[in-house]
């Protein structure tokens, strides 16, 4: 028999870091690592998870960027905040890191979209944003997640920016955005009435600023909304 040559693709370091991120996150969410608890050293994590030191550092860097852990020079890394225990039921733990990273390009892209939309939107485009807002609020009222309506709202703002590349870029990001929106809005649906009220109000303020053609406010409200959405996922507010 002839020997068969296997063509295997090595796992990307970024992917391994996401998997490690997810496993540490699971222990934080479950309470195995309580707030204030010190994480094992990099060497111990390397040994326990059987990954290289660069993978461990990448995972810890992302956990710190997301506000879940804090590093103290010369002392170690500690759990800073514990997200809702519902988080890992809404998304695979290994995917949560990539969903949270999606907020970084969104901040750059959608903040500018909102500002340009305030300057350039037509009456028809404003109506489209308003209809998407009404649809989103309707989904909330029916107890639905509303991620498709949320995507439609942000897509309508991008279209109103007056550059066809903006909505095209959102479409290119649709798969990962849908995952992050499902996760964020899933937590909102299961959370408090006050949390749902704040999410509705954030969208209304974006619409109002675009309607009033106030570029600075539109940019500010969009940035605030995206920043708050990310914070609600990671538990930075501590609310449910």
UniProtKB/TrEMBL annotation:
Domain HTH gntR-type per the UniProt entry, residue ranges: 14-82
Coiled coil: none
Cited Gene3D superfamilies: GntR ligand-binding domain-like, Winged helix-like DNA-binding domain superfamily/Winged helix DNA-binding domain
Pfam families on file: FCD, GntR
Record keywords, A-Z: DNA-binding, Transcription, Transcription regulation
Transmembrane segments: none
Database matches in InterPro entries: GntR_C (IPR011711), TF_FadR/GntR_C (IPR008920), Tscrpt_reg_HTH_GntR (IPR000524), WH-like_DNA-bd_sf (IPR036388), WH_DNA-bd_sf (IPR036390)
CDD domains referenced in this protein's UniProt entry, alphabetically: WHTH_GntR (cd07377)
Protein known as: GntR family transcriptional regulator
């Amino acid at each position: 028999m002839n020997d068969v040559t296997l063509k295997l693709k090595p796992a990307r370091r970024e992917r391994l870091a996401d998997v490690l991120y997810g496993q540490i996150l699971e222990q934080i969410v479950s309470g195995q690592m309580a707030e204030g608890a010190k994480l094992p050293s990099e060497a111990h994590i390397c040994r326990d998870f059987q990954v290289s030191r660069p993978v461990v550092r990448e995972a810890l860097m992302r956990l710190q960027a997301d506000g879940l852990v804090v590093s103290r020079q010369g002392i170690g890394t500690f759990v800073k905040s514990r997200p809702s225990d519902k988080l890992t039921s809404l998304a695979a733990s290994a995917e949560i890191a990539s969903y949270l990273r999606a907020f970084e390009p969104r901040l750059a892209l959608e903040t500018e979209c909102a500002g340009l939309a305030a300057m350039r939107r037509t009456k028809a485009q404003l109506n489209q944003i308003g209809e998407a807002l009404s649809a989103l609020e309707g989904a909330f009222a029916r107890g639905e997640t509303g991620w498709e309506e949320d995507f439609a709202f942000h897509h309508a703002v991008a279209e109103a920016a007056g550059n066809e590349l903006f909505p095209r870029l959102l479409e290119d990001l649709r798969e990962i955005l849908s995952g992050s929106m499902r996760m964020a809005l899933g937590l909102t649906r299961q959370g408090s009435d006050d949390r749902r009220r704040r999410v509705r109000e954030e969208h209304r303020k974006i619409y109002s600023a675009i309607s009033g053609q106030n570029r600075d406010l539109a940019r500010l409200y969009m940035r605030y909304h995206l920043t708050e959405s990310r914070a609600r996922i990671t538990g930075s507010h501590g609310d449910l």
